[in-house]
Amino acid sequence: MEFRFITNLKIMLVVIVVQLITACSSPTLPTASIHPSTTVDAASYKYLVGAGDVLNIFVWRHEDVSGSFIVRPDGMITTSLVEDIVVSGKTPTEVAREIEKTLSTYLRDPVVTVTVNNFVGPFSEQIRVIGEASEPKSINYTQYMTLLDVMIQVGGLTEFADGNDAVLVRIENGKQVLYDIFIEDLIKNGEISANVDILPGDIIVIPETWF
Q1: So what's the pLDDT on residue 14?
Q2: How far apart are the first and last CA of the chain?
Q3: Same domain for 133 and 162?
Q4: Which of 12, 102, 111, 203 could bond to 60 as cystine, CB 3.0-4.6 Å?
């Protein structure tokens, strides 16, 4: 009996020491960086290129350097003449002007047009829905998207959701601002007044009901 007590005591001491060592040696991860959208209202929205987008780049009278190029995870593309052009976070028009500037080293007065396929966009522009949605996920923003549009894409609420205590998190002037949203009133009671505009980068948090 005494031997078992001493053995258990030794085990407890070893566990405590390991926990203390772990607590002292474990580094603290930095808080995730905030990348606010430049869109302040739906009317001012401009699509920004993101990783995974496919860019169709047409150089007038130079079909040999035109083509389709996928944006790499690092936000860059490599064209027929130029490597590592940063395109993520820019509008297609801004990308076209940047490519013209770069190609002017090799071509005389290049004229470039850029269109986008397979719209993905940067993470900072995506809408994130977490918590008690039927299909929590990130959604690509579309101009004039509303709360109802978002809830349709995530399949509505689960049976355990407290939709009227949901919160919309938005970055304004570099700070997080929380807005109360009433999803249950919107999708179950049909209260259109509860439908609100969604902006790029919004986060919707849907809690679980207490009963």
Answers
A1: 47
A2: 47
A3: yes
A4: 111
Q: What is the DSSP letter of 89?
A: T
Domain hosting 164: range is: 123-206
Task: Please state, in angstroms and rounded to a whole number, the distance separating the CA atoms of residues 136 and 206.
Answer: 10
More confident residue, 38 or 203: 203
Look up tokens 């005389």; give the residue. Answer: 108
Tokens 């993470």 belong to residue: 123
Task: Look at residue 12 and tell me whether its pLDDT is greater than 70.
Answer: no
What is the reported pLDDT for 140?
Answer: 94
| Structure token pair of residue 112 | 């470039």
Between CA 26 and CA 196, with CA 123 as vertex, the angle to 5 degrees is 115
Do 109 and 73 lie in one domain? The reply is yes
The count of structural domains within the chain is: 2
Pairing mode of beta strands 85-86, 166-172: unpaired
Confidence of residue 34 (pLDDT cuts 50, 70, 90): confident
CA distance 206 to 161: 7
Report residue 25's pLDDT band, with 50, 70 and 90 as the boundaries.
low
